[in-house]
Design a protein that fits this description.
By secondary structure, the chain is an alpha/beta fold. The protein has twelve helices and 13 strands. It has two domains: 295 residues, no CATH class; 182 residues, Rossmann fold (3-Layer(aba) Sandwich). It catalyses: L-threonyl-[protein] + GDP-beta-L-fucose = 3-O-(alpha-L-fucosyl)-L-threonyl-[protein] + GDP + H(+); L-seryl-[protein] + GDP-beta-L-fucose = 3-O-(alpha-L-fucosyl)-L-seryl-[protein] + GDP + H(+).
Length: 501
């Protein structure tokens, strides 16, 4: 492994930590195509386990949508004439069983493929990358002028901090991320439907109070992915000094899971036995593994579904998406863990105050127009086979954008005086832009130098910026060898040290 030193930070190649859709209706045609049918011309250019972080994709059902041409699609071109979209992350290719398909979207059609041999073809108009798998040192170079790049990234910001820096996100022309500002927002990907929120309370308040009298804690914590950028365990550990918390996962464990729940895909699914077990608690500590606007996962939505009150830290704008202004307790609204603990104790002892947090179970009490509109207008579904999934939806978004771009370029070439040259589209920090990780409790300057979190996540964040700048430099210099990334990072560091960068 190569490393360099700069005046700002130590530079190391990072490896991601993660796992492994706007147009009215989107339909996908599943007519498998053989490689010979492409007829293309090459350009002449040299532990996932229980309680582990997951992707909403892991719960998504994939099925063939009946072959259908969008109501505005009059694209009668043959397969040999269509623009090609390449899924660079082949493991995410949303078609089975082949590696190449024709898609007929709302107004136009494309070929989509996971076959990387088409990377340098003239007709390959766009490449789609899965954010978790995107590596600066493996990028397809040289970046061709006629091709756009598209980013699909619905997972935690911790999986790839390259995308949280300007030089990293600006590499992409189209984006589908959890941020509402992205081109194809996936913000509510973990919320199946409004009905999911309106499910009756799973365990009555009377039963919860009885269990409390028998010694059950008011607060549940269940995590087995401990060393994460949000540093949630540090906060929970301090909170435990002031209120009883039952912790069943590997992190801060103080209670064993019942034997029948130990082998669990339980926290990564909604197995009834597990759901009934956790529904007994009044409050669920719902702390995301990464802090970023609009990054909200099942940790938030499942307690709301069950009729428990989430005690939340993650998206700083989470209130924008809540059923009403009294359905979640936001950790950052309290000056200290003790102040939060005192408030939770107050609710635990006052039933009338506690049940106010569950009033959203009455649909008349759901007052958030943004949430209702978001669920109503999204074209993709979560385990809803009447709608496309967001992978197919995003590739159709890219297909439509690319057909429009190519048509505008043709019109400009034919009549430059009558038509404007199409302007390149570029993503901005608002499409991802997650902040530097900070300690879950306390000030970073007060942490000892050998603190494990301090040695990992701030460094990973800044090293990712180095890699983003290095890749940007590779592309600017029209390099064709991604292994030269480290040389470019070193050159940038030297220039910075000399005051030239």
């Amino acid at each position: 492994m190569i490393s360099f030193m700069s005046g700002r930070r130590r530079l190391l190649p990072c490896v991601g930590l993660g796992l492994l859709a706007v147009l009215c209706w989107v339909w996908v045609s599943f007519a498998s195509l053989s490689g010979e049918q492409l007829h293309l011309e090459v350009l002449d250019v040299a532990d996932r386990g229980a309680f582990q972080p997951q992707s909403a994709l892991s719960d998504m059902e994939f099925g063939s949508v009946a072959s259908y041409r969008g109501p505005g699609n009059s694209d009668r071109r043959s397969n040999k004439e269509l623009p090609i979209i390449l899924w660079w992350s082949g493991g995410l290719f949303p078609h089975f069983p082949g590696d190449t398909e024709r898609i007929d979207c709302a107004t136009s059609s494309c070929l989509v493929t996971s076959n990387r041999k088409v990377q340098l073809y003239k007709r390959t108009a766009s490449i789609i990358f899965y954010g978790t798998d995107f590596r600066a040192y493996e990028a397809p170079l040289p970046r061709l002028r006629h091709q756009t790049w598209a980013l699909f990234h619905e997972e935690s910001p911790m999986n790839n901090y390259i995308l949280s820096h300007g030089p990293g996100i600006r590499l992409f022309n189209y984006t589908a991320t959890f941020r509402r500002e992205s081109d194809y927002p996936l913000t509510l990907q973990w919320l199946p439907s409004l009905e999911y929120l309106l499910e009756p309370v799973a365990v009555s308040l009377e039963e919860k109070n009885r269990l409390r009298r028998e010694g059950l804690a008011p607060v549940l914590y269940m995590q087995s992915h401990c060393d994460v950028p949000s540093d949630r365990d540090r906060y929970v550990q301090e909170l435990m000094k002031y209120i009883q918390v039952d912790s069943y996962g590997k992190c801060l464990n103080n209670r064993p899971l019942p034997e029948h729940l130990e082998d669990t895909a339980t926290a990564t699914g909604e197995e009834p036995g597990f759901m009934n077990f956790v529904a007994r608690y009044k409050f669920h500590l719902a702390l995301e593994n990464g802090v970023c606007p609009d990054y909200m996962t099942e940790k938030l939505w499942r307690p709301l579904h069950q009729g428990c009150v989430p005690v939340y830290r993650g998206s700083p704008v989470v209130a924008d998406w809540m059923p009403n202004d009294h359905s979640v307790i936001i950790i950052d609204n309290f000056p200290s863990p003790k102040a939060l603990a005192d408030f939770l104790k107050h609710l635990d002892e006052n039933d009338d105050e506690y049940v106010k947090y569950l009033e959203f179970k009455d649909p008349r009490r759901i007052t958030n127009a943004r949430l209702l509109e978001g669920l109503e207008t999204r074209e993709w579904g979560v385990n809803d086979m009447s709608k496309p999934n967001y992978l197919n939806g995003f590739e159709c978004y890219v297909c439509e954008q690319e057909n429009a771009r190519l048509a505008a370029e043709r019109a400009y070439r034919k009549a430059q005086k009558r038509n404007q040259a199409p302007q390149p589209k570029m993503a901005s920090n608002s499409h991802m832009g997650c902040p530097l990780p900070s300690p879950g409790y306390g000030d970073v300057k007060d942490l000892p130098p050998d603190d494990g979190w301090l040695q990992i996540w701030p460094q990973d964040y800044w090293q990712s910026l180095d890699q983003a700048e290095g890749l940007e430099s590779l592309i600017r210099h029209n390099e064709s060898d991604p292994s030269l990334l480290w040389k470019h990072i070193q050159n940038i560091a030297v220039s910075r040290a000399r005051g030239k960068h």
